[in-house]
Amino acid sequence: MADDLSVVNGARVSFARHKTELDDSDAGLIRFLMRERHASPFEHAVFRFHVRCPIFIAREWFRHRWSSFNEFSMRYAKATEDFYVPEPEDVRTQVGKPGSYSFEPVSDEVADTTREELRQVYETAYGAYERLVELGVARELARAVLPVGAYTEFYWTVNARSLMNFLSLRNAEAAQREIRRYAEACERFFADRMPVTHEAFVAGGRVAP
Ligand SMILES: Cc1cc2nc3c(=O)[nH]c(=O)nc-3n(C[C@H](O)[C@H](O)[C@H](O)COP(=O)(O)OP(=O)(O)OC[C@H]3O[C@@H](n4cnc5c(N)ncnc54)[C@H](O)[C@@H]3O)c2cc1C
Question: How far is the CA of 51 from the centre of ligand 1 (A)?
């Protein structure tokens, strides 16, 4: 649902003008709007993503209030046996103080142990969940035994202005690695659908207008 033209037309309506094709002057206008932080025209370009991610990532994502979410419900549907186990190279240790951690690799042994511990907890938790559901316990209560590594899915509808805010915070060094991977994917869609806006965003230091 998003393109550069909706930004241009959002801005040009001030002069009762409407374009059907983007030209060089429109690209210049987008760069001007970004530079001067005339932000509202960017709100007319809208993306809808269908996301599948672990609950602990969804919690970070849902903090982005300037957007709309609808999520899979474990009240209405049975949870799937689907849990996040990081790749060995993604198991890391944290070094330093809060606010300035760096994340360093761990030994193969620690990576294997981490993955195995997670698998065991997931198996135990899902087994308990199934037994409770089998006993007739409501799904809305039985889900309490499931860990935050369980996958969820949601629709996320977000306009380009808010998406840029998300990208500046989550496709960034300080963001958690897992949400950063998702943000990188979102940014690829953004760059593909709105190349001029994306270029201006990057040129402006990745600051949302
Ligand atoms: C690296 C990192 C670490 C984080 N750590 C923590 C943490 O430890 N604990 C924690 O609770 N959160 C944490 N957060 C979440 C963070 O505080 C934000 O809630 C989240 O990034 C959403 O950003 P946002 O408010 O800009 O986005 P949105 O909610 O989409 O808001 C967009 C913009 O609208 C405006 N806005 C929205 N709501 C209000 C409001 N109520 N009042 C005034 N202006 C508003 C602001 O300009 C805001 O930037 C962290 C985020 C990052 C990226």
Answer: 20
| Cross-strand bridge partners of residue 156 | 49, 69
- Specify burial of residue 152 (Cβ count, 10 A radius: 0-12, 13-18, 19+): buried
Average pLDDT, the chain: 97
Beta strands in the chain (DSSP E): 46-54, 68-71, 92-95, 102-105, 151-159
Q: Helix 195-203 and helix 4-12: axis angle, to 10°? A: 80
Q: Is the pLDDT score of 156 beyond 90?
A: yes
What is d(CA 25, CA 4) in angstroms, rounded to the nearest whole number? 12
Ligand 1 center–CA 182 separation, angstroms: 18
Active site residue 35: no
pLDDT digits (tens, 9 = 90+) for 57-72: 999 999 999 999 999 9
Does the pLDDT value for residue 99 go beyond 90? no
Closest-CA residue to 67 (of 155, 1, 158, 154): 158
- Residue 53 alpha carbon to ligand 1 centre in Å: 20
Evaluate: CB of 162 within 6 angstroms of ligand 1.
yes
C-alpha closest to that of 88 among 110, 118, 56, 121: 110
pTM of the model: 0.96
**Residue whose CA is closest, atom 15 of ligand 1?**
63
